[in-house]
Amino acid sequence: MTLPRIIADADVQLAVDGETLARSIDAFLACAAACTACSSACLAEDDVARLKDCIATNDVCAAICEATATVAARLHKGSWTALQKQLEACLHASRACADECREHAAQHDHCRGCAEACERAEKAAGMLLEAIPA
Amino acid sequence: MTLPRIIADADVQLAVDGETLARSIDAFLACAAACTACSSACLAEDDVARLKDCIATNDVCAAICEATATVAARLHKGSWTALQKQLEACLHASRACADECREHAAQHDHCRGCAEACERAEKAAGMLLEAIPA
Amino acid sequence: MTLPRIIADADVQLAVDGETLARSIDAFLACAAACTACSSACLAEDDVARLKDCIATNDVCAAICEATATVAARLHKGSWTALQKQLEACLHASRACADECREHAAQHDHCRGCAEACERAEKAAGMLLEAIPA
Amino acid sequence: MTLPRIIADADVQLAVDGETLARSIDAFLACAAACTACSSACLAEDDVARLKDCIATNDVCAAICEATATVAARLHKGSWTALQKQLEACLHASRACADECREHAAQHDHCRGCAEACERAEKAAGMLLEAIPA
Lengths: 134, 134, 134, 134
Description:
The structure is a homotetramer. The first copy, chain A, is mainly α. Chain A has helices spanning 3-8, 18-43, 52-73, 80-102, 109-131. Chain A has a single domain, classed as Substrate Binding Domain Of Dnak, Chain:A, Domain 2 (Up-down Bundle). Chain A starts with a helix and ends with a helix. Chains A and D meet through helix 1, helix 2, helix 3 and helix 5 of A and helix 1, helix 2, helix 3 and helix 5 of D.
């Protein structure tokens, strides 16, 4: 992964190093991709009617995680509050999606995988929230 | 605009009608486009070094407004908290971007136009926040 | 709409004026929002199993139209080929989505509205493709 | 990475396995993040005026790679042409961005890292293009 090297070059001013920030951005993007793929796989299932909430939660979480990755990769002193609020949105969306996907984990592998990706995004968002300067 | 007709069909459960929700989504998208175009126009200016904060704020606001439009267009009972947090991120990002762009409004038409688009997005986010069921 | 004023300020070098370019960007964004809202409305329908292709086509079209709007709003001499290829993707995605949504137009208002938004995006993409310098 | 497991579950019908498709999606997302971070790092440099083309190319490439990742993660028989066109846009955008970033690689580590991420996205797009059924 070359992202740490790119990030490290910037003057981040968060209480985390570039490597940690890069891993967080990676967690948001991996979550967005997992949610998109899980939504698509749910849609193809025979029991799609039972998976409506899962698809809806996946799609919302994907959009929020994508924006969070972009904002975190554009760290800038004028954007602390925006980043903080965006991380809070990400924390809630990924927690809600992990909860929803976990309910279908026994039936569908894609839901189990997606729940794990959401949990990692939730943790990354929580960690970055604590690293924002007061 | 056909969006009100599409939205009206859904069971929104917000304390706003479909027409108002559609206008809000339109305000978020118009703000994202204005921020992207303003960022690109700032970059082409001779005094780009003075416009660094404006470009950075524009890019963050564009990403957040785009995600907010998507989440608002996917309204779903399981996503109230995610929508609320995303609207708060949108409110702060568009306010910060309006403030920054207004500082360059006398020199650059694109900054004046962008500040106005940001103000409309901020108002739309504030209004939807009040319409979310408790 | 303030976008024409922002765009007009830039040195576009397309064979269209800023007003026309701004209306095209607006058509791509309106299509993305319509596809997202139609996908969400389809998912909430009782006959969701019959609307699987419509949801999938909507979601693909929304992602492509969003990117096309961003690229078109960032016009830059180094990006002509990328813009051309992105417009071709947009043309095909919005045509495919218009075709799919039209099949459900009699049953669902949101599909009829979305088909119209897709047709406008397809026309805008075709027009911009002809305006790119050779 | 949980994405291969999610993708593997779907009926892909591309001439690649789920693992390869997942690695490609990862390459598009890593490229989008690298371009966004490189754009932000360029903007913070003292010689920003010399990096204008790099920033513009980065921003276009990020938007296109993000959409490509989404479309590839939503593979669906009705979307072959849209995927093909989107992959062509991705191929060109990431090649153009790799070329541009390589010119600044000696001066800026973030440009060197970004050029490598773009090259991997270009290769992934080329490989998937060959795997689309005729």
